[in-house]
Specification:
The chain is mostly helical. The protein contains ten helices and two strands. It has a two-stranded antiparallel ribbon. Helix 1 packs antiparallel against helix 4.
Length: about 260
């Protein structure tokens, strides 16, 4: 027998809709707040840009070695490994072999840390306020029932704040609806703000896991010389396999 609950239909309009609208508006405000708080990236000096580009060149050579001929790979490998070992691409060759500088004294590293703190504030403060608002006004309400069956494993996810063991798993509480909106509005934010938006909770988490991706190849406090030596070792131990080796025989055997 299907379980039914006598509830006021107005709960659907006075709880579900307000939570959804507030979550969307909060995401839009978070996006623009993140844009306003974001500091303008500084242009790298030519030696620093050369240092990072050289490291990226070695990584690209290692990852795409199979598409170039053995002679071309050997020439590039010899040039890159020699330059890495001699410190040709270092922006500060006079500091080679010295201990890495304290990242707390590096203005660029401090600026990156400050950017991470701003992002965390833009993400945590609105969610804390919304969570408190829902707990204060909408805690314990069951607002809707899903039209499709689910297993019991979804009960804890869909019925947060409702301590009822016998309640059908398809019923959704107000607190669970908040969490579903928190992680399920990505498509709405893409439609409103575009692909490159800071409104999504998942996008915020990814940016915090990998801050400054693509902006700096070296982490704060990391010794570029050791990174170059490690990449030189990776190139030396790489076994080159040309993708076009024996292509004529393979082609003839496939059509024979």
């Amino acid at each position: 027998m299907e379980q039914s609950i006598h509830r006021d239909p107005a709960l659907f309009y006075w709880i579900l809709f307000p939570i959804s609208i507030v979550m969307i508006l909060t995401g839009v405000l978070r996006h623009y707040a993140t844009v306003l708080l974001a500091s303008t990236p500084k242009k790298l000096e030519l030696p620093a840009l050369r240092e990072q580009s050289s490291l990226m060149r070695g990584i690209n050579l290692r990852q795409n070695a199979h598409v170039i001929s053995p002679s071309s790979f050997a020439a590039r490998k010899s040039y890159m490994t020699t330059a890495y070992k001699e410190g040709t691409f270092l922006k500060d060759p006079e500091n080679r072999g010295k201990a890495a500088a304290n990242p707390m004294t590096d203005p660029a590293a401090m600026e990156g840390m400050m950017g991470m703190m701003k992002g965390n504030m833009a993400m945590m403060v609105p969610q804390t306020l919304i969570m408190s608002w829902i707990n204060a006004f909408f805690a314990g309400f069951v607002i809707m029932k899903l039209p499709f069956p689910l297993t019991l494993r979804f009960k804890s996810m869909l019925q947060s704040g409702v301590m009822t063991r016998d309640l059908d798993v398809r019923w959704v509480s107000s607190l669970s609806w908040y969490f579903l909106n928190l992680f399920g509005l990505q498509s709405v934010f893409i439609f409103i703000l575009g692909n490159e938006n800071a409104a999504s909770q998942m996008a915020q988490q990814m940016s915090q896991m990998n801050p400054g991706a693509g902006a700096n190849m070296f982490q704060p406090g990391q010794d570029p010389d050791k990174v170059f030596l490690s990449e030189a070792e990776n190139l030396e131990v790489l076994e080159h396999e040309y993708i076009l080796k024996g292509v004529e025989e393979r082609l003839l055997s496939s059509i024979a």
